[in-house]
């Protein structure tokens, strides 16, 4: 825990001077002040994070954490658990949606096995398995507190490694059949949200399984009695290994003064945990989109984030974050390439 506190203690406030300088620059461009909306907000935020008015954010990486969930024993998903393993191999072969959109955005995909219930080998896989999947949280704690801490440390180490080789912006992605169930439980406890509002349809379950999924989440909360004032306790009891790993990625990104683009519902559950562990990490987060998953809007509100996009997506993997990278590139080009009133000879209003 001391190591985690050291990381949290290393997170610094955004650089206000750089944000102010970015605002001055934006207001000198040939447009009404604020007329580019969230692109301008992003430009200011990136300046504050990096300390540079026009940072080079071309080195991008999406960290896809993969793990299995014991709660799948309760029949909460439309897909069998072995899909987690199969999709990890798909990521590594470059054939998943996140690979396609990452290539489109000029980003690399880093796949981490933090808890897949299988023995996986691939030269491009980061094997950091804490355990082979969580326990069934409807019957017992998903993992121990130490396992949750270990998974967070894995995410911090991955973020440190990427930042150390020049990656300037990170994004969160995930794979794990059953992980919307864990994320819904985290939202319900940490966000104080009723289970029926927090639980969505995940991969597309029918009404009967949706009601059953709500009951499973209620049971998990009743059995484990997570302490809403202790985010690590909640994460360990009703969370997931990939969620814990992404929590670490977010904290590690903030420690390294890197913006971190948050993907969908599961990634936002990690953002919620990170924001409760370290409120100082929240200004480093950028919410890429609001997904079609029922509780995602409430999750973002609980973190204090507003989405850049509304695309009715619900795939996860980091797909929404990859699309947001293109908006980040656009914000950078506005800062670097748009003419000022003076250079263009345009009169101010």
Automatic annotation (TrEMBL):
User: What GO biological process terms does the UniProt entry carry, in alphabetical order?
Assistant: cobalamin biosynthetic process
The protein's annotated catalytic reaction(s) are: 5,6-dimethylbenzimidazole + nicotinate beta-D-ribonucleotide = alpha-ribazole 5'-phosphate + nicotinate + H(+)
Q: Does the keyword Nucleotide-binding apply?
A: no
Instruction: Name the Enzyme Commission number(s) assigned to this protein.
Output: 2.4.2.21
Record's keyword terms, sorted = Cobalamin biosynthesis, Glycosyltransferase, Transferase
Question: Could you say which protein family the record assigns here?
Answer: Belongs to the CobT family.
Please give the function described in this protein's UniProt entry: Catalyzes the synthesis of alpha-ribazole-5'-phosphate from nicotinate mononucleotide (NAMN) and 5,6-dimethylbenzimidazole (DMB).
Protein name per its UniProtKB record: Nicotinate-nucleotide--dimethylbenzimidazole phosphoribosyltransferase
Task: List the source organism.
Answer: Paenibacillus chitinolyticus
